[in-house]
């Protein structure tokens, strides 16, 4: 797989910082956020205007960023935007935006709650499982990645995670909370080049998921579902 161009990596990281500061396509609730950008390579890009509203509504209706369902697909800045249900303040927990250049941005908020002696815990599987399921079935056809030549760069981050804990299996196989190290608010995952049969890039994506577990000191543990 080719290396991800530096400019794409830096742009994705700047975008994560903007999401952290609230500069988003639609108002989000407070809490940890999973940010994912999928940027088609030059040879894959095509006009987003060629996608019908019916197809976009069906596609976004099937996406679940961080396992949060989306509704209300509308045209937005030359592309398409769908968000989850809103609270009384008009804020949502997830959205997906397909830009005019066919860059797909997904932001989702894993559910947060108490576990043992930790007050704000969340589960990485909330974004890992839906992404593994939806990339080949939904995202690849949308971005034209199903053939042998189409490819895209997938870049993920977690932000607003300071003071929280992730729940995962320990090195001895016991599921429990692991507190995020103090002062760490944003984590960037290794970029992954996707396209063609999933068998070509699934391993790289799963290895990228391990970043957050390594952060809390786990060495070789990987959940059964991966």
Shape: globular
- By DSSP (H or I, 4+ residues per run), the number of helices equals 5
Average pLDDT: 90
Element order: H for helix, E for strand: HEHEEEEEEHEEEEEHH
Percent of residues in helices:
25-40%
Please mark out the parts with pLDDT under 50 across 5 or more consecutive residues, or reply none: none
Gyration radius from CA atoms, angstroms: 17 Å
Strand count = 12
Instruction: Please state the structural category.
Output: alpha+beta
| Count of distinct structural domains | 1
Question: Would you mind describing this structure in some detail?
Answer:
The protein has 5 helices and 12 strands. The longest helix has 19 residues, at 125-143. It is of the alpha+beta class. It has one domain (6-215). The mean pLDDT is 90. Strand 2 and strand 3 (79-83) form a beta hairpin. The strands form 2 sheets. Strands 1, 2, 3, 4, 5, 8, 11 and 12 form an 8-stranded antiparallel β-sheet that branches. The chain is globular. The protein has helices spanning 6-20, 53-62, 125-143, 202-209, 211-215; strands spanning 33-40, 71-76, 79-83, 94-98, 104-108, 113-115, 118-122, 152-159, 165-169, 175-179, 186-188, 192-194. Helices cover 25% and strands 27% of the residues. The two termini are 21 Å apart.
